[in-house]
Amino acid sequence: MLKAQRRSGQLKETARRLCAALMAQARTPAFFTRFGVPDTIDGRFDLVALHAWLMLEPLGRDPALAQALVNEIFAQFDEALRDLGIGDIGMNRRLKTMASAFYGRLQAYRNASTREDLAQALWRNLYRGALDRQPEADALATYATRSRSHLANLDSAGGVEFAPLPTT
User: Fold this and answer.
1) Per the domain annotation, does 67 fall within a domain?
2) DSSP 4-34
């Protein structure tokens, strides 16, 4: 039993560390300045979902850690909503809506079998289909593809290293 509790504590701590790295990367100013991702709640949410997908793919080998990471991400979402003044009454509904959108994004990225498909998914989600943002979506698809390679061996002990952002 103590071993299970220790494992649970280690999972939570590792998930916190991974989530902090994910959130820091998703908040990189270049996404908003160079790549034109809207600096809004929706734009930030979509960047978190993208980076969560990049991390969750290699963590599929460790379902318990992957779930702990998702739990930590949603704890962060909950905290952010509370900071915005959302009370307990509307919280469940909003978190359900966010969960649906989050898992929808993960599925869209997972279904993208080529870099071009991923660019289309990013264009639809990050840029809501804005015609003038296709080049940025293409550049971010390249970044995501490279980041997947960088994160391929991600595990509970490894460091988190995303690919460098392209120069567009």
Assistant:
1) yes
2) HHHHHHHHHHHHHHHHHHHHHHHT-HHHHHT
Which residues of the chain fall below pLDDT 50? 1-3, 5
Query: Which of 30, 19, 80 has the alpha carbon at shortest distance from 54?
Result: 19
What's the domain count of the chain? 1
Give the burial class of 3: count Cβ atoms within 10 A of its Cβ; 0-12 exposed, 13-18 middle, 19 or more buried: exposed
Contacts for 2 with CB less than 8 Å, ≥ 6 apart = none
pLDDT tens string 50-98 = 999 999 999 988 999 999 999 999 999 988 878 877 777 777 888 899 9
Structural domain includes residue 168: no
Paired tokens of 159: 């460091």
Q: Compute how many other C-beta atoms are within 10 angstroms of the C-beta atom of residue 93.
A: 10
